[in-house]
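Q: Predict the bound structure with WT7.
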Amino acid sequence: MSDNKIESILNEQRSFPPPQEFIDSATIKAADLEALYAKAAADYQGYWGDLARETIHWQKPFNQVLDESSAPNYTWFRGGTLNVSYNCLDIHLESLGDKTAIIFEGEEGDTRSLSYAELTAEVCRFANALKASGMEAGDRIVIYMPMVPEAVIAMQACARIGAIHSVVFGGFSASSLRDRIEDAGARAVITADGGHRGGRVVELKAATDKALAGGCATIEKVFVLKRSGQEINMQEGRDLWWADAVADQSAECQPTFVDSEHPLFLLYTSGSTGKPKGIQHAAAGYLLNAKITNQWVFDLHDDDVFWCTADVGWVTGHSYVAYGPLAVGATIVMYEGAPTYPDGGRFWSICEKHGVTVFYTAPTAIRALMKLGDEIPQSYDLSRIRLLGTVGEPINPEAWMWYRQVIGRDKIPIVDTWWQTETGAIMITPIPGVTATKPGSCTRPLPGIEADIVDENGNSIDSPEAGGYLVIRKPWPSMLRTIWGDNQRYIETYWRKFNNRFYVAGDSAHRDADGFYWIMGRIDDVLNVAGHRLGTMEVESVLVAHERVAEAAVVGRPHDVKGEAICAYVVLKGERPTGAEAEALTSELRNWVGEELAAIAKPDDIRFADNLPKTRSGKIMRRLLRTIARGEQITQDTSTLEDEAILDQLRGDA
Ligand code: WT7
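A: Predicted complex:
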């Protein structure tokens, strides 16, 4: 496939209807979809209520679909009780007990698979171990694990006893871990000695020890899975090997049935201030949307092998690894390591080896693999793949076309799924057996999701191509319930802008003449680096915490693989460094951010200046910094700048 071909068709209104063979076996056909839209439009609560009754196994039925009395703190399915782990495991045991639930591949090539019966037994043993350590419903438990089956087992075990998990991505640093433990008031951490990533061992237990050193009074127990095998420190009385904890435990554990609104998990995500937000999800509503989207969007059939490449540290790894696919009784693939280890064919080799049929990944991974050329994927047998998905950031049409042509044999459907940590599940997406897709558009909202695009006054924008705020007009079951410990921030962040009338996603978008949505990016000061949200403020706070830094401003610039690259403008205490000193300090600050926050947060560029460009009121002129970071011509008014020469410093020319 030549690059010219992509270039020349870029301006076309390309549209790709699903192939007939896909349509023939699709779970949702055109008529089904129309019926769902019609029902949701005619009777919103009836639509969600019926779906909830059909989809979830209830211990006790609910008596109210939606309670709007405390809006925007909406509640769903009041009066009902359920257990999410029961809904992911026990309901399948009779018919699918021997079916493979998880196919695992470690980075070093070790593989392992667990049937639904085996997975259930492991979940029960670990749930019993949690109980034996005194963990109860409502307790917060932090999970800081590599991508191994025990990460899913730990999540499911928490759900089984009604404990609230908070998974912290293994790539986050000790201090990020500590902040999340403290904010949640967690009683236990579940971790591992280490995990394999990119040929190295990520030392999770060492980071946990560092996080817990001199504080974190709420932590009573640390469960440690042996994975990487290196020597670690175990603290008497606090730390417990996973194997020892489950050794004498029964493989049966009666699930704790909880209220529909009982929190299932917290997941911390970046916002426009320095402090991550603990996004709180409720058991029933979350399970409902996670389950139906796996059926409708990924069209999972009994013989499918679904590989969502996301780590369980992100919401995608919750809804499309640990919960949703299991709720539908699917077989999933989990892979521990890096996409390009030991070489750029690893993803494709896993697809071939395990017969992956549905593959879901992020644009950043697609672009990185695309750069390596067509020969690598072409040397693997990818013929079993019948559906492709993408999530995390807007996908550029070139990458979309490559994905379709080279991985999708120029015929299989791609679902570009828009959603957020806050929405819990996919919201705007093609339905693979119905929608004629356009490269770069996430197409239409699902039935029951009342998305819209509005202007500054909250009026719906009808003219195609005009951008505005992406909002959701009605509550939906898997919406976040609040920000843990800070309901005021919940209201301010998501509802205040339009007087609580609709949920504000924080993205801008436009809608074409077919009613298809095109996401344009974030409105707030949030970066999207490799499909992960990072607050500019978070990176800035870490930079100024360094002893030599006086001030810092962070902005994003487009990056052809990661989507956005991070540019940091730094003012030091004392002299502005140049030459070798500037270089040394650049790498010191990059490492500092990696250690204090996360490796993915390391700035790509650091520029030192004597000052930052500010307005008269002292606000940093971010727009100007963005222009500079992109290497574009400055058209903004710079007359308020004290010293125009600093523009040259900021550009790195002086
Ligand atoms: C933000 C949410 C939801 C799982 C992964 C990220 C961006 C997400 C798309 C898409 C364009 C997308 C948005 C959104 N985003 N999916 N298909 N097209 N942009 O979860 O960390 O909560 O980030 O990711 O900006 O608001 P998250």
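A: The CA atoms of residues 67 and 75 lie 5 Å apart.
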